[in-house]
Amino acid sequence: MKYKFTYDQKQCSGCLRCQLACSRAYVKRFQPSSARIQIFASGEEYRAVFTEDCVKCGFCADNCLFGALVKFPEEVAA
Ligand code: SF4
Ligand code: SF4
Hints:
- By secondary structure, this protein is an alpha+beta fold.
- It has one domain (3-73): Alpha-Beta Plaits (2-Layer Sandwich).
- The protein has helices at 17-26, 59-62; strands spanning 3-7, 37-42, 45-50, 69-73.
- It has a two-stranded antiparallel sheet.
- The longest helix has 10 residues, at 17-26.
- It binds iron/sulfur cluster (SF4) (2 copies).
């Protein structure tokens, strides 16, 4: 199943668990820079960007403990 996501920067702690989970799953290393989601910090503000090679698996959201990144099933086209 593929997912779409909501991201609430007010809930985001900047912990990078999402990036760690993605990189562990896809490059077999805890290497946030290799993740297919990137969290950018600017002062107190955070921003989430998915890279083009994201497969929408939802694993990153499963590992967000702060409720900032939430997954929803993508609607299946009729
Ligand atoms: S949905 Fe999957 S591939 Fe995309 S950023 Fe999250 S863990 Fe990585
Ligand atoms: S989205 Fe969740 S897992 Fe990712 S940095 Fe923010 S709080 Fe951490």
